[in-house]
Amino acid sequence: MGSGTPWKLPKARAKGSPYFSRNQISKVLHQVGVLLELNGANPFRTRSYFNGSRTISNLNDDLGDIINTGKLTELKGIGKGLGSSIRRAVLDGEWVEDWIELFESTPNGLIEMLGIPNLGPKRIKLLNEKLGISNIAELQISCEKHEIEELDGFGKKSQQKIIDGIQLLKRFNARRRLDIGLLYGNALKNLIGNIDHVEKIELAGSARRRKESIGDLDLVVGAEIKFHETISNSILSLPGIADVKGAGGSKISVILDTSIFENKFNLGNIDDGVLEAIGGDEYEKMEASGTIDAQIRLVSLNMFPFTLAYFTGSKEHNIRMRQRALDRGLKLNEFGLIPLDKIENKVGIEAAKYSLEAKSEKDIYKMLDLPYIVPELREDLGEIEEGEKNNLPELVTSNSLLGAFHNHTTLSDGEATLEQMSDAARKLNWKYLGISDHSQSLKIANGLSPQELIAQGDIIKKYNSEWKQSNTNFRVFHGVESDILENGKLDYKNEILETLDYVVASVHAIRKWKNRDEAENTEDLFNAIENKYTTMLGHPTGRIIQGREGYEVDMHAIIRRMGELNQEGIFKAIEINASPYRLDLDWRLCKFAKMCGVPISINPDAHDISGLKDVKFGTYIARKGWLEKSDIINTKDSIEVMELFSKRG
DNA sequence: GCCGTTTTCGGCCCGACTGTTTTCAGTCG
Fold this sequence. Notes:
Elements: H1 22-38, H2 43-57, H3 63-68, H4 80-92, H5 97-105, H6 108-113, H7 121-131, H8 136-144, H9 156-172, E1 176-177, H10 178-193, E2 200-203, H11 205-208, E3 213-214, E4 217-222, H12 228-236, E5 241-247, E6 251-257, H13 272-278, H14 280-288, E7 291-299, H15 304-312, H16 315-327, E8 330-332, E9 337-339, H17 340-343, H18 348-352, H19 361-367, H20 383-388, E10 403-404, H21 418-427, E11 432-438, H22 450-469, E12 475-483, H23 494-497, E13 502-506, H24 510-514, H25 518-530, E14 536-537, H26 555-567, E15 573-577, H27 587-595, E16 600-603, H28 615-624, H29 638-645
Parallel strand pairs: 4-7, 10-11, 11-12, 12-13, 13-14, 14-15, 15-16
Antiparallel strand pairs: 1-3, 2-4, 5-6, 6-7, 8-9
Helix pairs in contact: 1-2, 25-26
The protein binds one DNA strand of 29 nucleotides through residues 36, 41-49, 51-52, 76-82, 117-123, 152-155, 157-158, 161, 205-206, 215, 218, 246, 248, 251, 253, 310-311, 313-315, 318-323, 325-326, 331-335, 347-348.
């Protein structure tokens, strides 16, 4: 949820009811929850707002319809209070007084302060009341004047932690992208895995769940207890550890820097537009001197599966699992799964002696009457309910991919030629590659004139026939990444589009789209997808992770419409842009797309040879979004792809 | 604020760690 941009209650839509969209309601509920926290409200009350927000954002049906049919308060987590507030907003265009008051009375700076690690709502409130601090800049000054350490409940260490936290927040927005997290995480995992007597090691936390961004790294290490001390010492002397924040018997907390990597830290080629959004050259320098926090838990082998499950999360999934354990007279924690009647008032490690045994996480799920749930799905977004029905999806894997669409060459803004890209694709064992350079309006990316596009098509035809003659099972599909222009128009005349195998339609005029409201943007996207020649929608929201939020758009409505078109036999797909900077379509919407029958294309948006490999991040997101092989276009062979692309209606 | 119900209010997941205390509050996951 947007840091930087001030929080405001959105204005009612001028056209009338529904005055607010599902996205707006969900966002406001979340924000009210945060504001309540900052005002010291009952934590269970604030949780209700967060739960309500989640419920609304995960709706499959139209919010307006749900309200009109009187079913709003039938939703889990929406009771009388939230129900009537939401109703009033959507039907009458009015926010309840309490919320208006909250938004007006809470300084936006306090919300930003929440981003500082180890500083939560209670202490922010205290700082505000005692010292009048209402933003990060004032907090920094107060720290420098040593005012914080004088406060009751604070001390020198708290003050220093706040200073460090501000620094971290400034550098990386306190979170890191998944690709960066995995780079560091896997490097550390390999190093620890090579230490004597380490029998098991896994990356846990949000990196294991493949969230698009992660806070810090969690690793769980399993070894016999008698070796723990020597292992712990070995870990502390590994390369790449810039600082040790704490080292107890079972938990080691460190800061890693880029010296953990054997080779020089290199981010590879970043698309210019993306680089601009995340801070340009400064960003690259920052990463090169970057750090990341890591927590390592050292446990006995019998505890390993429980600790791994616990630190993999998510928090919401864990809550459900613990409740499930309680329903069965068991207590689930990081140490074990323990029958309640055995432990009386023992807690923690003492109680864990009575734990049931588990060889792996699979056993834990089994003891709670569930099939194994893969880490990607552990978000409490239906995986427990579907697991109960033995109805979990068989998720797509990277090696099911036979090719990819949406790739660039030197003809527009890529770094590799058509020939080099094709060679690289064949080395990945792909059977085809889609080339879609930028279209003419995108001057900054050297967009192709109609003549250039047609000439490119001729070259591709020539190669395809050569491959065919030499019995090489490979072909190039000729496409274009057409800019979406005014009113959702595409960037070439129909006669030109007609000659292509496919069209990826994408928005690039981000500034303009971010200055318009949800309804206008949605309208233009409707027009774009309804264009006969649009095959798939590229990076549908334009977000850059850690860089900028996407433009406002009712993506549910877009996806629903695309689903209808597919029903009518017209092929319309949506991409998961696999660049780790984008990962757009968001995983939270993948399941909905699947439900609506909209095919997904995992697109690397490669600008050079190495960019093709980014499909692995797209696959992570597809898996996180419940997608199976059959939901993904680029698992189909080239003949099937050709048939699908030709269904233009 | 939601939920469930012994239908009107009590419980809402749970433990570790940290830094501040001298028994605990805040934060995190």
